[in-house]
Amino acid sequence: MKKNKIIFFLLSFLLIFSLAFSFNNFQKKSSKLNEDAIYNPNSSSKNLIVHYIDVGQGDSELIQIPGNINILIDGGPKSSSDKVVLYIKSLGIDKLNIVISTHPHEDHIGGLVSVINSFKVDNVIDTGVNHTSATFKEYLKAVKAKNINYLTPSPGESFDLGTNVKLIVCGPYKRYNSDLNNSSVVVKLIYGSTSFLFEGDAESKEESQLISGGIELSATVLKVGHHGSKTSSTLKFLKKVNPKISVISVGKGNSYGHPAKTTIDNLLSLGSSVYMTDTEGDIIIESDGSDVNVTRGSPYIPGSSSTTTTSGSGQTTTTMGSEETTTTQASNALFVGSKKSDVYHYPNCGSAKSIKPENLITFNSVEEAKSAGYRPCKKCNPPG
Ligand SMILES: [Zn+2]
Ligand SMILES: [Zn+2]
């Protein structure tokens, strides 16, 4: 009996130690990182920045945490691999501390294979359900080939990711091989008094498990479940989250009829402002630990058609509380330039942001930019 107890304590100690060890590298900066050589507009930022990348019909969210800690939740479908990889590179990021694969559907993991092969990845958090698709096998193969620390955490587990930043695993409570959406990894990221909840493709079944589970679900910003489908976002769940801002990641003209009008109506009825990637392209939300600001994208205006296309350029002003942020960017273009110069940039480049709306032009490929007589920016270093 005594011996068993000792073994039990030893094993528990080992488990705790190994968990602590695998995550303590979040606190460290890479010794190889030459920050002078890398253009990272956010490296000195105290803001936590969440990019809801427009991947068409799918999901991909990049989170930049102060201290150069980066998390990617899902990688969109395979067709958006290049976009996601270029987007991350354009921010000067070469390492992802955590990649979260919410569930094995192609519109979430298709792009992760390229991501895993293009960046140093420290940890993969996975739902732990099996799937037989070729894409899922390819993804697992990439994780194994790079010998990445692979975790399937349970609800309630949390990870400290620097000063005032915590990642809490909220779900899944159950893992269904035949119901992947309701097996989605659901996480909540807390920064100071602000928080972001990411639902993956969780539907009403997982939403009610999340409520019963008892983990505090309230969040400033919600990444709405399953592309705004009517099978998710029950009013009961949304009331628990009570998001000030909601983001729906959804493809323009998708064949599923996403997002559902009921989802949008439910969110609006709770006073949440709703942002959608199909009309806005990439959406960027920043938190300073006490307030959140949407720095890219405009909210859905009730009464306007959700299929309205934004012009792709121009100035949008978003007012959130007392603060006002102005962005001048192209929503969907891969590269941007100014009519007054011959340089093309990634849309996130600091120089690109200073281009006046009336001078802004967009390119969807390197060829397009080059044939217009433009050359790559030396600061953000796009391909070309
Ligand atoms: Zn999906
Ligand atoms: Zn799914």
List the main descriptive attributes of the protein structure presented here.
single chain, alpha/beta, 11 helices, 21 strands, binds zinc ion
What is the helix tally? 11
Query: What are the distinct ligands in this entry?
Result: zinc ion
Helix content: 25-40%
**What would CATH call the class of the largest domain?**
Alpha Beta
User: Looking across the biggest beta sheet, what order are the strands in?
Assistant: 6-5-4-3-2-1-14-15
How far apart the termini lie comes to 69 Å
Radius of gyration: 21 Å
> What form results from the Cα inertia axes?
globular
Number of domains: 2
CATH superfamily of the largest domain: Ribonuclease Z/Hydroxyacylglutathione hydrolase-like
Mean pLDDT: 84
Which CATH architecture of the largest domain is right? 4-Layer Sandwich
Concise synopsis of the structure shown:
It is built from eleven helices and 21 strands.
Describe the structure.
This protein folds into 2 domains: 14-326, Ribonuclease Z/Hydroxyacylglutathione hydrolase-like (Metallo-beta-lactamase, Chain A, 4-Layer Sandwich); 335-376, no CATH class. With 384 residues, it is α/β, with parallel strands linked by helices. Strands 6-5-4-3-2-1-14-15 form an 8-stranded mixed β-sheet, covered by helices on one side. It has a 7-stranded mixed β-sheet with strand order 7-8-9-10-11-12-13. The chain has a 4-stranded mixed β-sheet with strand order 20-18-19-21. The protein is built from 11 helices and 21 strands. 25% of the residues lie in helices and 26% in strands. Helix 2 runs parallel beside helix 4 and helix 4 runs parallel beside helix 5 (134-145). The model is unreliable at 19-42 and 306-331 (pLDDT under 50). The longest helix is centred in the first third of the chain and has 23 residues, at 2-24. It binds zinc ion (2 copies). One zinc ion (ZN) binds next to helix 3.
